[in-house]
Amino acid sequence: MTNQVKHPIPLPVVVVLLLFLTILCKTRASITTETEALLKWKASLPKQSILDTWVVLPSNSSSSSSKASNPCQWKGITCNNESTHVIEINLAHTGLNGTIESLDFSSFPNLLRLDLKLNNLNGSIPPSIGLLSKLQFFDLSTNSFNSTLPSSLANFTEVYELDVSRNHITGGLHPSFFPTEDSKFGWKSMQHLVMQDTMVRKMSEI
Ligand SMILES: *[C@@H]1O[C@H](CO)[C@@H](O)[C@H](O)[C@H]1NC(C)=O
Ligand SMILES: *[C@@H]1O[C@H](CO)[C@@H](O)[C@H](O)[C@H]1NC(C)=O
Ligand SMILES: *[C@@H]1O[C@H](CO)[C@@H](O)[C@H](O)[C@H]1NC(C)=O
Ligand SMILES: *[C@@H]1O[C@H](CO)[C@@H](O)[C@H](O)[C@H]1NC(C)=O
Ligand SMILES: *[C@@H]1O[C@H](CO)[C@@H](O)[C@H](O)[C@H]1NC(C)=O
Ligand SMILES: *[C@@H]1O[C@H](CO)[C@@H](O)[C@H](O)[C@H]1NC(C)=O
């Protein structure tokens, strides 16, 4: 009895922590998270007028803050009908400079289309891009990306069009990109796959 181990964390603290975590999880995939992720990405890029609309207006006391921080009207951003999630990022052919390395892909669980073709983007295609598991359309063509294609792209089970042509991408195509009959991952929906003018080795060479 006297040696009874005391609970290391007092119960009220545990309850508060759990509540906090629940709230955190709920907001995790909200438009606010998406707004913050877009602003963080913008901050990582060289200053460019193309993203001038990407600002959170100071909310007047009368207007709701959620409205003020809504990115749905920003250039290149499309939301779902309820304006609760970003479903498309389309900055194709805008002369965008920088990298996508600071874009927090975990914030966009509902993204369907990512179109960044014909820009001046360089650096790597980060493995975290595989977190866009609902993505259907993915176009990074005509940029200067110079990494390999991360194996996490096998998560693109819904993608029907993938274009990374005209980049400096190297390496091979991971076997998991190509699903077998009962695999959970892989490019199961692919209709249009374009990789010309990259340095990706052909499948026969792997
Ligand atoms: C990207 O950088 C180049 C060279 O610094 C510059 O000429 C161009 O205007 C920049 N693009 C944008 C959209 O600001
Ligand atoms: C916020 O308030 C300022 C000054 O009261 C006004 O000029 C501005 O139009 C308001 N903005 C919005 C979005 O209501
Ligand atoms: C969204 O709105 C458009 C146009 O009003 C409509 O055609 C479409 O069916 C709506 N989508 C959903 C998922 O409600
Ligand atoms: C991307 O290109 C810019 C301009 O040429 C250069 O300054 C920067 O170091 C490059 N970044 C990467 C990650 O290659
Ligand atoms: C694939 O997507 C799921 C669901 O979003 C995620 O939990 C998982 O981490 C992703 N895998 C990779 C390799 O990105
Ligand atoms: C990509 O380019 C950057 C900047 O030129 C360089 O530092 C990096 O090593 C390159 N990465 C690969 C995988 O070639």
Describe the protein in words.
One of its GO terms (cellular component) is membrane. There is one protein chain. With 206 residues, the protein is of the alpha/beta class. The protein has a single domain, classed as Leucine-rich repeat, LRR (right-handed beta-alpha superhelix) (Alpha-Beta Horseshoe), CATH 3.80.10.10. It has 3 helices and 9 strands, in the order αααβββββββββ. The strands form 2 sheets. It has a 6-stranded mixed sheet, with no helix packed on it. A 3-stranded parallel sheet has the order 3-5-7, with no helix packed on it. It starts with 10 loop residues before the first helix and ends in a 12-residue tail after the last strand. The mean pLDDT is 86. Bound molecules: 2-acetamido-2-deoxy-beta-D-glucopyranose (6 copies). One 2-acetamido-2-deoxy-beta-D-glucopyranose binds next to loops. The site of one 2-acetamido-2-deoxy-beta-D-glucopyranose (NAG) has 2 residues, from loops.
Key attributes of the depicted protein:
single chain, 206 residues, alpha/beta, Leucine-rich repeat, LRR (right-handed beta-alpha superhelix), six-stranded mixed sheet, three-stranded parallel sheet, 3 helices, 9 strands, globular, binds 2-acetamido-2-deoxy-beta-D-glucopyranose, Leucine-rich repeat-containing N-terminal plant-type domain-containing protein, secreted, DNA_repair-toleration
